[in-house]
Design brief:
6-stranded parallel β-sheet; 2 domains; alpha/beta; binds zinc ion
Length: 342
């Protein structure tokens, strides 16, 4: 079968590899669509680790082609999306339902083979943990690949404790920023302000329902946000992109007792200067979010059915033979997400 193989930073090759066979407890998926995200690009750039020789791809949707011995509750022909997290199920965090924080966590596409291949062998641990979710009928497979990114966004918004009718500032309107915008709106955010340097993306934020769009090269973010929020600041700010310099304007735009969530991964060894008195006197909650719990995956897949406009973040499609182009297209700022479609 054809697959993308990761040989090291800047080196992903399309190759013919041996077709996997499902052993006891495993599943074999015939892939329908696999999304690439910023974290795949960070691996490609050498900013994030992955195993040499692994097949990348953690935003996976496929049809069950074969069931290994002993798999129950799933059937051949079923279309499924995956939570790519392999968790131990018994550590401190797993017992709290936080499998994304598992002390022994590994992930499909980084440590184990992922879905940039015609067939994906789903490990028995993923099957037994219940990380295989049937895709609702009528939800296209390319849209269902957004389950993973949307689950991460749901985790982010829940970390923000954004109330219905609340206000949100998004710093960055890449695919994840735009998914934050759509989901926050669907969950009842009354005001969503978006700041972004890329004019095309800013325009898209407008189309997807941003209350106010700001260009940090032209606008004073703090004064624009204060003006739009009766001088209070917003309930929450999400730094959707890993730019350390955005932490300071985030703290300047959040209201007292508001939340700043650091969503995007930052380059290794980043530091930021902050005035601890701003956090202290305004009782600001600074938090982070990374990946999502299985329950957030389950709900994200259902939420995709109520935000059909999410489909528009998938802008570039490639066959597996051109898998490397899916990476290259993401190195530029043209378009939003890239997919491999089978
Ligand atoms: Zn992803
Ligand atoms: Zn664990």
């Amino acid at each position: 079968m054809k697959a993308c193989v990761f040989y090291g930073p800047g080196d992903v090759r399309v190759e013919s590899v041996t077709e996997p066979q499902p052993g006891p407890g495993e599943l074999l998926l015939r892939m329908e669509a696999t999304g690439l995200c910023q974290s795949d690009i960070r691996v490609y750039k050498g900013e994030k680790k992955a195993k040499i020789g692994v097949i990348p791809g953690h935003e996976n949707v496929g049809v069950i082609a074969e069931l290994g011995e002993g798999v129950e509750g799933l059937a051949k022909g079923q279309r499924v999306a995956l939570c790519p997290i392999i968790a131990c199920g018994r550590c401190f965090y797993c017992l709290r339902g936080l499998r994304n924080r598992c002390l022994k966590r590994t992930t499909l596409g980084y440590d184990e083979n992922g879905g940039l291949a015609e067939l994906l062998l789903v490990p028995a641990s993923i099957v037994s943990l219940g990380h295989v979710f049937p895709v609702p009928e009528g939800l296209p497979s390319d849209v269902a690949t957004l389950t993973e990114p949307l689950a991460c966004v749901l985790n982010s918004l829940e970390a923000c404790r954004l109330p219905p009718g609340g206000s949100l500032l998004l710093l960055g309107a890449g695919p994840m920023g735009l998914l934050h915008l759509m989901l926050a709106r669907a969950l009842g955010a009354a005001t969503v302000i978006v700041s972004e340097v890329n004019q095309g993306r800013l325009q898209q934020a407008k189309l997807f329902g941003a209350s106010l769009t700001l260009d940090p090269a032209r606008d004073d973010i703090q004064s624009a946000v204060l003006e739009a929020s009766d001088g209070l600041g917003v309930d929450a700010v999400v730094v959707t992109t890993g730019v350390p310099a955005l932490v300071e304007p985030a703290l300047a735009a959040v209201r007292r007792q508001g939340t700043v969530n650091l969503f995007g991964g930052f380059p290794p060894n980043s530091t930021v200067a902050l005035d601890p008195n701003v956090v202290h006197y305004s009782e600001i909650n600074i938090t982070g979010s990374q990946n999502a719990t299985p329950d957030q995956y389950r709900r994200a897949l259902q939420l995709l059915t109520v935000i059909p406009q999410a489909a528009q973040v998938n802008t570039h499609r490639f066959p597996i033979e051109e898998g490397t182009k899916a990476y290259e297209s993401r190195l530029g700022m043209d378009g939003l997400k890239s997919l491999v479609i089978f």
